[in-house]
């Protein structure tokens, strides 16, 4: 059986068990508007799986990078007409800002049993849905050494061969740059060294993968699942979790206070957090938040990956400065 067929079979198997575990006592219905930064194909598959559990919900999706999603939403807030019921975006920093401005609805009864306390807001206004680590992808056919840690990207073997996603577009990149720049051993001098070594910034993680997979770059900074999925499809790439600590986002989900269909919104959030939703995340190639649902093939256990952490509140305070300084170095 080919790898694509095996992946498809895993997705179908995950979807088949959804009605047994994910359906709420009272089925939701009506139109549900979701704004998201999830890749288009992954989001389409997710909606199809959710609809297996909740067939009476009509899901309408607006999809772009986190920065563009939030720019659209900010304009809607200013006009007094926010469209989404649910946000599913890359980073908790953005969610912390929305919570602080009173935009998110609390759900005290949310099904968070079994989830790590730091995976969701203590007031249950936003909830992580998976673990998406940022590390290093490299082209295995490029004749360059495998990277081991972040400093390798500033070394001579990587000169002029590194691409990274811009925090002006990507929420995961905002977390990545904010986390590394807050580290005493790296800080902004590290990004200055990357620039001096010829590293360049592209719009998002998809552009990073394309550049490395096609050989236009040898190394890239990227979220893990994209690199692993590409390798499974035969792309000449491999992924490394840096020994000195990957950065990570949890792709949080939240219901807006202005949601027109809060029942369907809570059903969507609850499904993402359920065993069925978490197993579907694994089938899509993501690391789950629930340790008992397994991990994607070829991945280490989540507790075997060193993850750097900075509080969402601290990252939120520095996010504007992060984007400003990055743009000054690498352009906008």
UniProtKB/TrEMBL annotation:
The keyword Ligase does not apply. It holds the Pfam family SBP_bac_11. CDD domains: PBP2_Fbp_like_2. Residues 1-24 form the signal peptide. Keywords: Signal. SUPFAM superfamilies: Periplasmic binding protein-like II. It comes from the Bacteria. InterPro entries: Ferric-bd. PANTHER family: SLL0237 PROTEIN, THIAMINE-BINDING PERIPLASMIC PROTEIN-RELATED. This is ABC transporter substrate-binding protein. It comes from Tistrella arctica.
């Amino acid at each position: 059986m080919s790898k694509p067929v095996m992946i498809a079979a895993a997705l179908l198997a995950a979807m088949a068990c959804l009605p047994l575990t994910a359906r709420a006592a009272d089925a939701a219905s009506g139109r549900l508007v979701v704004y998201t930064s999830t890749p288009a194909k992954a989001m389409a598959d997710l909606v199809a799986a959710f609809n297996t559990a909740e067939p009476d919900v009509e899901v309408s999706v607006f999809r772009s990078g986190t920065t563009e999603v939030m720019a659209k939403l900010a304009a809607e807030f200013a006009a007094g007409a926010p469209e989404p019921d649910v946000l599913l975006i890359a980073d908790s920093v953005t969610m912390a800002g929305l919570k602080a401005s009173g935009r998110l609805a609390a759900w005290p009864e949310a099904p968070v049993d079994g989830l790590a306390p730091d995976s969701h807001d203590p007031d249950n206004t936003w909830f992580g849905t998976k673990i998406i680590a940022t590390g290093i992808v490299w082209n295995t056919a490029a004749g360059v050494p495998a990277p081991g840690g972040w400093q390798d990207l500033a070394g001579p073997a990587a000169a002029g061969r590194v691409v990274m996603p811009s925090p002006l577009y990507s929420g995961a990149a905002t977390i990545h740059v904010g986390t590394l720049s807050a580290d005493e051993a790296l800080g902004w001098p590290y990004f200055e060294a990357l620039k001096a070594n010829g590293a360049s910034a592209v719009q998002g993680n998809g552009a990073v993968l394309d550049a490395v997979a096609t050989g236009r770059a040898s190394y890239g900074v990227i979220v893990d699942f994209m690199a692993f999925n590409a390798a499974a499809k035969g792309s000449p790439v491999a992924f490394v979790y840096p020994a000195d600590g990957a950065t990570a986002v949890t792709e949080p989900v939240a219901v807006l206070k202005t949601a027109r269909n809060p029942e369907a919104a809570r059903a969507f959030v609850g499904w993402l957090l359920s065993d069925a939703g978490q197993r579907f995340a694994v089938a899509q190639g993501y690391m789950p938040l629930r340790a008992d649902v397994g991990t994607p093939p070829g991945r280490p256990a989540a507790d075997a990956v060193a993850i750097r952490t900075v509080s969402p509140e601290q990252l939120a305070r520095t996010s504007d400065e992060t984007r400003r300084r990055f743009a000054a170095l690498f352009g906008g």
